Amino acid sequence: MDLRLLERCRQGHLEAFGDLVSRYQSRIHTLAYRMLHSREEAEDVTQETFLNVYRALGTFQGERFSPWIYKIASNLCLDFLRRRRHSTVSLNAPIGPEGDIPREIADETQLPEDVALAGALGLDVQRAIDALPPKYRTVIVLRHIEDLTYEEIAEIMVLPLGTVKTRLFRAREILRVSLARSD
Amino acid sequence: MECLEVYAWLQAYLDSGVTAEQERAVEAHIRACPYCRRKLVAMARVVNALERTSDISPRADFTRRLYEALEEEAGHPLAPRPREPRR
User: Each residue of A164-173: pLDDT tens digit?
Assistant: First the structure.
């Protein structure tokens, strides 16, 4: 289905690109929102993802569209997180030599958009995701929010299957511990 | 079977990623071990909290803004435009 749409885009049928946008924009925006916890940045990433897809329409050689667009989007999210880390020291940024110890600073402010956009995910869970190091955050969002398989995540993140599992297990362990603390 | 040995299986069990034999071993272990049972329940709770969320659509004028950016890039109008996402 996606590849057929892609082929039609290449033939100049622009409504096919619109169909790809309609099919993927909410999924990509959800991924970006959960990774970045910012509506502005999530929309920037979603827009930039489709611009990248549009630019690469002629050169895409892959066999499946979905891992490709997720790869573009998750790499853009990681770029945003990297830039954030360089520009400010976030109170949520993880600490420790491996960068995998969440900080324990409670942030009591709750923005209106947190409430509106929570998508039924408790703010405590979103904040626990925010405190995960990026490499763990990506894998947890792809697995449990986007409902992708280990194999799909390995393809998106260009990692061996074993590494995907290790990161997912570690991420769930960190979330379990940090949510037990906030109970 | 020791807790440490069962740990990776416990995690894979959450993703239905264990063989029938491993599943039996995990279940036998958690029946006998309150520590791992608590751990599994807490992890399953985290997974459930993550998985019961719904998609978050971008704001209503997102598609219009995206197409403005695409048209600027292309240097010409792109029609037809898709509908805004359902909210």
Answer: 999 999 999 9
Domains of chain B, first to last: 1-80 (1.10.10)
Mutation choice for A interface testing from B4, B37, B46, B67 by most A CBs within 10 A: B46
For A131-151, the pLDDT digits (tens) are 999 999 999 999 999 999 999
CB-nearest to A175 from B7, B8, B46 is B46
Predicted complex ipTM: 0.85
pLDDT digits (tens, 9 = 90+) for A107-120: 444 455 554 455 66
DSSP lists the bridge partners of residue A101 as A95
As assigned by CATH, the class of the A2-182 domain is: mainly alpha
The two structure tokens encoding residue B35: 């520590």
Is A173 part of the contact surface with chain B (CB cutoff 8 Å)?
yes
